[in-house]
What does this fold into?
Amino acid sequence: MKLSATKARRIKRSLTALAVLLGLVGGGLLAYPFATDLWAARLQSNLVGGLAAAADDYRAGKIKVGDALTRLEIPKLGVDVVVVEGTSLAALRAGAGHYPETPLPGEDGNVAIAGHRTTYGRPFNRLDELAPGDRVILTTPLARHVYEMTTQPSVVEPTDWSPIEAFPKNGGYLTLTSCHPEGSADYRIVARAKLVKSSNTIVMAERRAS
Amino acid sequence: MKRPLALALAVSSLVLVALPAGAAASKRATYALEGEARGLELAIGDQGVTLGLALARGSSTPIAEGVGAGQCSVLGDEADPDNLPCNESTTQKSVAPGEANAQGEICAGPAIPAPLDSVLTIDVACGSSVSAVRNGTPSTSNSGKVAEVGLGLDLTGLIPQAEDAKEQLIDQLQSIIGGAPEPIATAVNQLLDAIDEGQGAQIVLGPAASNITSKGDRVTVTSTSAGALIGVAGIPDLNKDGIPIPGSSVATEDGLIIVEVGKSFATASVDKLSAASDSDSTAALVTVKVRDITKVEPTYTEVPVAPGQTVTILEGTPAESTITAAVATKESREGSAVAAADAVRLHLLKGVSGGVKLGLARATAAVTAKPKVLGQVNDPDPRVLPMTGARDATLIALGLLILAGAAFGIRRRVN
It folds into this structure.
């Protein structure tokens, strides 16, 4: 089929525009996870310094949403991330955020932290690999708290707040949540650990200094 | 121009197929399931015990919980899982998601309350319970069981001494096993000498189990009670002088009456997406056998008992026993489905201190469900846990890039 020169030019122009648009959107989608990882890494490097300087705010209980709250380490998974206060979309760009309605690390009750399974550094990418006995360490400006996993991680509906809210037992607990399965937000995976040891980092530092 | 177009169409189809995979998950029903199975409920006078109990509960929350118990005291019609009068050392409970999911089986010698402990012997009772939530769906597996149950009944009162009562027993046995009255009369007199050396009653009981499982979009609660073999008034072997040999009786093999109770089954299931529910049940079949005591080798005559029917054997004698066979029911209506296999009821040896009452192989299963589509106009927006995992868009991105390439390909061919 032979087209007129004007018509052919018009079609060519439209196809070029379509191809460029599709290419940009496709490329953007492919690049998105890497871009979020870079963003989170940049935020993390700022938060490390912020955490060290936050002892007074922490003592006063005045941590603002988005500010560094605690360092979270999971030796088994190679996770080492600074957790910010809050679980809003903006706060969670740092990778992991503390549910503001739950106690602070080391306190009695259920400390809950949400973390990205994919994108934004994906600190909880391998949360499903945790097993009873595995350790999760929270280091705040004031103290270091060691938690130990008590059960295998379980999966709940996204609307199920019971792992965060309903917790009748005495003692200190830590609940980590993330999306499940990987690459989907259909469910949430929940890992629970019990506080087994706390040590005062400031006292230890002072001892070391003396 | 044809090849790039075909490629573009193929990629578009791939993207369209990939996209709705997650969309279906937003339409989910709310549902709850519960099941219960009991192995044996035994009562002598006003004392009773339940042996083998399994409970299962699950919901779309999702929560899964269960109980498996080897021994409990008398339960009402509806057992309350939060307040079970069960022997803790034979009871395992589990809940998920939770702090301490029970693993494996727990067994112990049961603590039988007085005065039942003087007649009832049970070696060991066990309970097991494991619950989990997998991919947002509850699952739980629970069972309760006991090893062999022995009933040390005083059988001396079983065979009447008075002549007219003896005649009554002879008539009754004759009506069941047939045969001439004379050999039966002789056999009854032999039985009179031997019966107090025999085993009172023996019950071999199968486990009771209640489980919640899932396959595809279907979640199912299934309760089963594996039935029992009951031997009553064991008749011992005789030596060459016609003297009964102590300890030679096994009531389930040589008893005057043997009752076989088959497996009962109740199940109810629900579709996680559509909330469609269904149920089914099978009542335990009962076979009653009365021993032909005129023969040395144990030989039995079967007395048929149809589902729901009550049969009385050896009526008017101390060994009079009533057997009521179970019925199975199932009911499905919009939003619920219930199935029940009623217990087989036995009242054995009514003439021996009021007799022994048994309820066997009861199983129930039920679901309630309500369809729910998240995001509907009237559906309040639920508060969700923070979203921390973007949908994997690699396939869509690749599809778009291939489409872009195809558009360029087509462009080059346009003249």
